[in-house]
Amino acid sequence: MAEPLPPGVNAAQMADALERFRKVVGGDWVFAGEKVGSYYDPYTIPNDAERYKAHAAIAPASTEQVQEIVKIANESRVPLWTVSRGKNFAYGGAAPVLSGSVVLDLSRMNRILEVNEKFGYALVEPGVSYFDLYKYIQERGLKLWLDVPDPGWGSVVGNALDHGVGYTPYGDHFGMQCGMEVVLANGEVVRTGMGAMPGNNTWQLFKYGFGPYVDGMFSQSNFGIVTKMGIWLMPEPAGYRPYLITFPREEDIEQVVEIVRPLKLNNVIQNAATIRSLVLDAALFTTRSQYYSGAGPIPPSVAKQIMADQDIGMWNFCGALYGPKPVTDALWTAIRDSFATIPGAKFYFPEDRKHRPDILIHRADTMKGIPKLTEFGFLNWNGGGGHVGFSPVSPTTGQDAIKQFKMVSGRVREAGFDYMGLMAIGFRELHHVTVIVYDQTQPQERQKLHELFGRLVREAAAEGYGEYRTHIHYMDTIAGTYSWNDHALLKMHQTIKDALDPNGVLSPGKSGIWPKHLREGRKS
Amino acid sequence: MKRRHFIHAATASVLLPSVLTRGPAVFAGIGRKSDYVFFDERFEPAHRVAASWPASNRPIGVRGDITPFWLSGLDVLARKDPLHLRGVTTDSFQFCLRVLLAEHAHLDVQVSRLDPNLFSWIMRTTPKILTTDHAHG
Questions:
Q1: Which of A269, A518, B36, B117 is at 20 to 30 A from B56, Cα to Cα?
Q2: Per the CB < 8 Å rule, is B65 touching A42?
Q3: Is residue A498 situated within a structural domain?
Q4: Which residue of B has its CA nearest to A443?
């Protein structure tokens, strides 16, 4: 099957553009034909082989090459789809929203330009993975910790730009970003914040610079191509003590979250802790067929068996204490005494855990910034491997937590899937991330998933719960839920898009933002 | 034994689930030794199948997590030498291995599903050409 072409570009024009791209980066770094397969979404949702397919991919090695590529894209009107490392699986991976786009793969731009131990920051290119940065820090014996998302192979830049999160006190990745370099659609290179002042020495120290703070414009957007980014790193603490608190009933989540809120607001819970559901944690190390061979979600009796076997709860709160022992002892007393009011709550440190592998032993690494791929164990729950994340945000209240849980788990279970969710605790908000694991080899299962996801989005939006991040298949849909004042936000995004990228060559359709020539007749 | 070199990444077979076939018979008769064989030690069928394959090295027992194996030398091998890997593992192990290998090597993959938990696979790699990349700091 021939690779699709984007609208308005014929085969000859594309061939010419690819030949010009080859002159910029070298023939080895333009991928077409069979080689473009690695840019497909491995968890594609629609039963339509033509959707979200790249025509080709190109991997530049420098900001200068990115500038030349953008110039060619403008002249040829070939759309680019930018990925840092293309590892955003469950959200589309490296696949473009607009079929026929050429993926701009920045993974070769993998220099770690600076790691500053005194101030705790790194300046990196988009191709730097968490594994890369961790290794760099370890090899040099620097007293700095990363904050990592669950998969360690992702891009430090890409994850932050997609509003990804981790699990240490530095868990808000975009919040920890400081200064960026961006190639605009006209080929201009801009440095934001203090980076705009020649000879400055605070580019990675002070976020705001002077005038409008524009960094956020380049997150989850298609307004420019980020080619360098500063990220703050946590100084290695004087002590570290991870803990696990388990709760025996699903309805406990209401009380748990009500207790979490003041503890988090007052920094007693220091990190981006998570409250994880039974099946999500069980799935890391066991499979569904080891417990249950029936159809539909696992029954309560099986859930009880899993709890007993693995010594986990219906909810499992993983947190960590950071700092010298007198401080962490005081924090632990406050945390333990608060949660001990919930009947059946159990408290563990790593030395208390008897099973191997174990959820706390695993999360203990993640909460100290060690990148891994362990979390992908959940793919094995029903063996089909497909997964998509449904990720609405809510206030940190027990009322919202139980409402969200019942709403989402109810629909997921009605559709025949097991509920695998977690609540990641921000300062004032919960990210309720539900992973829906399905058999991607079955078209009817993908269709069932698609119907379920649409329903979840509509019902969450009706209650005021918006998603913070989504799969490429749902970007238009989610953008459409942010509709206050007749979609004023989207209209503003489009105005910015038209100004910065009038030819619409940068990542068309990202976050529901389309260039003018592709906007007519498109409904969010 | 002269190694065969696979130049082109047959990634279509990786990412099109419709080509999955059933049963281990598809690999029968392939007498070539594998550099490494992996099997998921939690499942007895994985032991059995892996034990029947010729291998240059003793089969390696794994669970679902590729991380320790990748970081303990497989990443270096993948960059340096062509590899012939076989496995009977869960999806997470083979999926993560494929993605990691594809960063450093052209990849030819065959996968078939044995049962609800296990996938039988072969991965043949050829290191990619590297230029001035991987210059850190």
A1: B117
A2: no
A3: no
A4: B18
Give dist(CA A100, CA B19) in Å, integer: 24
Residue A97: CATH number of its domain:
3.30.43.10
Comparing CA positions, the residue from B109, B111, B113, B102 lying closest to residue B123 is: B109
Same structural domain, A307 and A448: yes
CA-nearest residue to B134 within chain A is A110
Does the annotation mark A240 as catalytic?
no
Mean local confidence (pLDDT), A96-102: 97
Instruction: Give the integer Cα–Cα distance in Å for A497 and A492.
Output: 9
Mean pLDDT, chain A, rounded, equals 95
User: Is residue A200 over pLDDT 50?
Assistant: yes
Give the closest-approach CA distance of A72 to chain B in angstroms. 23
In this structure, is residue A255 part of a structural domain?
yes
Same domain as A249, residue A227 = no
List residues of chain B with CB under 8 Å from any CB of chain A.
8-12, 14-15, 17-18, 20, 63-67, 70-71, 90-92, 95-96, 99-100, 102-103, 113, 116-117, 129, 131-137
* CA distances from residue A160 to A171, A349, A364, A513, B137 in whole angstroms, order as listed: 10, 30, 22, 19, 21
Contact B95 A380 (CB under 8 A): no
Q: Pick from A26, A152, A376: which is nearest to B95 by CB?
A: A376
The confidence score (pLDDT) of residue A427 equals: 86
Domain contains A524? no
- Poorest-pLDDT segment among A394-403, A489-498, A506-515, B4-13: B4-13
The catalytic residue among A39, A322, A468, A474 is A468
Set A43, A91, A419, A438: catalytic member: A91
Q: Do the beta carbons of residue A204 and residue A195 sit within 8 Å?
A: no
Q: Is the pLDDT of residue B16 over 50?
A: no
- Rounded Cα distance between A84 and A161, Å, is 10
- pLDDT of residue B4 exceeding 50, the answer is no
Judgement on whether residues A263 and A314 belong to the same structural domain of the protein:
yes
| Domain match, A265 and A224 both | no
Q: What is the pLDDT of residues A267-326, one digit of tens each?
A: 999 999 899 999 999 999 999 999 999 999 999 999 999 999 999 999 999 999 999 999
Enumerate the residues of chain A whose CB falls inside 8 A of the CB of residue B102.
38
Starting at the earlier edge strand, list the strands of the sheet with A80-83: A30-31, A56-58, A102-105, A80-83
Q: What is the CATH number of the domain that holds A388?
A: 3.40.462.10
The length of chain A in residues reads: 524
Domain count, chain A: 3
Q: Which domain holds residue A88?
A: 11-105
A24 domain-assigned: yes
Same domain for A254 and A231: no
Cβ–Cβ contact A28 with B under 8 A: yes
Residues B122-127, mean pLDDT to the nearest whole number = 93
Cis peptide before A297 (omega within 30 of 0): no
Of residues A403, A406, A463, A367, the one with CA closest to residue A258: A403
Residues A30 and A71 occupy one common structural domain: yes
CATH code for the domain in which residue A139 is found: 3.30.465.10
Long-range contacts at A15-22 (CB < 8 A, ≥ 24 apart)? A16/A76, A17/A72, A17/A73, A17/A76, A17/A78, A17/A102, A18/A56, A18/A102, A20/A72, A20/A76, A21/A58, A21/A69, A21/A72, A21/A102
Distance between CA atoms of residues A126 and A107, nearest Å? 6
Query: Looking at the predicted structure, is the pLDDT value of residue B21 above 60?
Result: no
Asked whether residue A58 falls in the same domain as residue A206, the answer is: no
Tell me: do A66 and A120 sit in the same domain: no
